[in-house]
């Protein structure tokens, strides 16, 4: 097939492109970084000319872009969008109905949600790892020494807007939402926040905005749900990092400033292709608390850890246990306290950790390959 690939700097672009070519497809890439992904005349003109310059069988991108979807629909060219972000931004749904779309989500529950709304061209498709590339990486002694530690975490803490949104709310609303937050914080494997956000609760929150003159702001269920999920994720990640930092040699890699204690060693960001795999391989345990609003799927970071022969220490996710066995391929926890207890245990047992790292890697090689995923995507067209 002749494929036009749109990219704006995604993590998995290089690996996806490599395997597309390995499978015999011809690819041309158009790079562009959107100032506004919903309105951009310059991009539309450039993309339009590219579509007219050759005969393309399909357009592909990592994550879903509304302008690409619109232009593909106008030219009746299949558009395949493989998403590693979840949940998707609400505004994107307006563009899901195009018959040229093929949208692939790694979270099964999110995919089923859109399917239930009538979007039959939204599919569930787990992510993939290029273990061939990871196996070829060579790390210097200085790199290995820099990243050796007991526990590491790469990611962000998530700054939730929840407290700002509830600034003008009364004590009952604040208490009710705090109750939802504390309950969901302690439950893994089932996301019930959406069920507890009633129409009456949303009306009350929006009425509180009107009382202070905020007439242009209206909060919907998804917005409040994501704010609560982000707040929970922040609390969980901060707690785990602080606890791990007090007990073990703990590294934290992030792009944003934070207020964690000095027990946690901050080392700034790392490059996805070259340095991140070194962190995964030479950390004894790789902590990966999933964003709470990812309801069932396996995040890319979790797969990358195991693909680099790192040991994954993760919260319970329904799709993780479909492929991996706790204590054999990875380490799962069902509470924050259990995460700390398991970290202490496995840090004392090098042989078990090495066994888990190898098993997890073998499962990745067997079940999470790019050729398999790409063939499944292309089969839909």
TrEMBL record:
UniProt-listed Pfam families: Glyco_trans_1_2
Domain Spore protein YkvP/CgeB glycosyl transferase-like: 238-379
InterPro entries associated with the record: YkvP/CgeB_Glyco_trans-like
Protein name: DUF3880 domain-containing protein
């Amino acid at each position: 097939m002749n494929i036009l690939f749109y990219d704006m700097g995604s993590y998995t672009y290089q690996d996806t492109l490599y395997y597309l070519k390995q499978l015999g497809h011809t690819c041309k890439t158009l790079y562009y970084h959107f100032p506004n992904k919903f309105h951009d005349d310059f991009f539309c003109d450039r993309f339009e000319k590219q579509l007219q310059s050759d005969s393309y069988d399909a357009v592909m991108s990592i994550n879903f872009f509304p302008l690409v979807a619109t232009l593909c629909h106008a030219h009746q060219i299949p558009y395949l969008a493989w998403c590693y972000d979840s949940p998707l931004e609400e505004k994107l749904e307006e563009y899901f109905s195009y018959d040229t779309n093929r949208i692939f989500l790694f979270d099964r529950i999110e995919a089923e949600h859109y399917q239930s709304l009538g979007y039959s061209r939204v599919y569930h498709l787990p992510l993939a790892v290029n273990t061939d590339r990871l196996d070829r990486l060579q790390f210097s002694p200085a790199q290995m020494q820099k990243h050796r530690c007991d526990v590491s975490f790469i990611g962000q803490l998530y700054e939730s807007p929840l407290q700002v949104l509830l600034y003008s709310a009364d004590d009952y609303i604040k208490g009710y939402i705090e109750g939802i937050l504390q309950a969901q914080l302690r439950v893994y494997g089932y996301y019930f926040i959406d069920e507890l956000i009633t129409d009456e609760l949303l009306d009350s929150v929006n009425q509180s905005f009107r009382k202070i003159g905020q007439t242009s702001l209206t909060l919907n269920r998804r917005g409040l749900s994501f704010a609560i999920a982000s707040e929970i994720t922040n609390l969980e990640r901060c707690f785990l990092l602080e606890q791990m930092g007090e007990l073990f040699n703990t590294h934290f890699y992030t792009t944003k400033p934070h207020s964690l204690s000095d027990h946690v060693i901050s080392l700034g960001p790392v490059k996805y292709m070259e340095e991140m795999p070194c962190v995964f391989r030479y950390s004894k345990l790789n902590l990966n608390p999933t964003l709470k609003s990812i309801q069932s799927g396996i995040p890319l970071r979790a797969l990358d850890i195991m693909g680099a022969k790192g040991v994954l220490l993760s919260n319970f996710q329904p799709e993780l246990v479909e492929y991996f066995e706790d204590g054999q391929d990875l380490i799962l926890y069902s509470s924050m306290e259990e995460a700390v207890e398991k970290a202490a245990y496995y840090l004392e047992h090098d042989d078990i950790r090495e066994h888990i790292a190898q098993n997890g890697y073998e499962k990745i090689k067997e079940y999470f390959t790019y050729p398999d995923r790409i063939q499944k995507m292309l089969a839909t067209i």
